[in-house]
Recover the amino acids of this structure.
């Protein structure tokens, strides 16, 4: 099972946040997440905002803090539970219970999406290598790696680097 594709900027913090939410069994505030994950406040705040916008977490309730300010409590969405299952295999059974038949639907949708991406990427590489032409500075990086258990992870970067790399690449004829 491949991890759901999420944008850059959700490095090592997001798996910690979704694990804590899954294990807690209740909705948590940003302050709770900060304490339980041992992440910096700004890291939690930035990741909560991003995870909310991606539909991985949602506001479960809003209450007033002791200072009278609004305080949101967060919980995992169905997509969030699927992310938990993929990133934390020890919590997959719990995620399957929460999602029920939707778990299989998420798995199939992601598998289909990966196959379509693979076809697009291989066609793109085929076109570039057979013509020998691409826009100046364009690059395509495809990294595939298996972990200790043999689970495969992949990462693709397509586009133009912010800074020109200093590597000496050979020209493909």
């Amino acid at each position: 099972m491949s991890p759901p594709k999420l944008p850059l900027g959700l490095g090592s913090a997001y798996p910690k946040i979704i694990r804590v939410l899954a294990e807690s069994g209740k909705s948590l505030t940003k302050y709770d997440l900060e304490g339980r994950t041992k992440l910096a406040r700004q890291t939690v705040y930035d990741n909560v905002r991003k995870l909310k916008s991606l539909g991985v977490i949602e506001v479960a309730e809003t209450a007033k803090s002791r200072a009278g300010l609004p305080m949101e409590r967060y919980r995992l969405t169905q997509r969030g539970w699927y992310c938990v299952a993929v990133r934390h295999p020890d919590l997959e059974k719990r995620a399957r219970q929460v999602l029920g038949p939707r778990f299989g639907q998420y798995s199939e949708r992601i598998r289909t999406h990966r196959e379509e991406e693979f076809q697009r990427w291989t066609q793109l590489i085929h076109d570039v290598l057979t013509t020998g032409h691409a826009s100046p500075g364009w690059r395509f990086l495809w990294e595939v790696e298996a972990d200790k258990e043999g689970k495969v992870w992949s990462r693709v970067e397509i586009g133009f680097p912010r800074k020109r790399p200093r590597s000496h690449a050979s020209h493909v004829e």
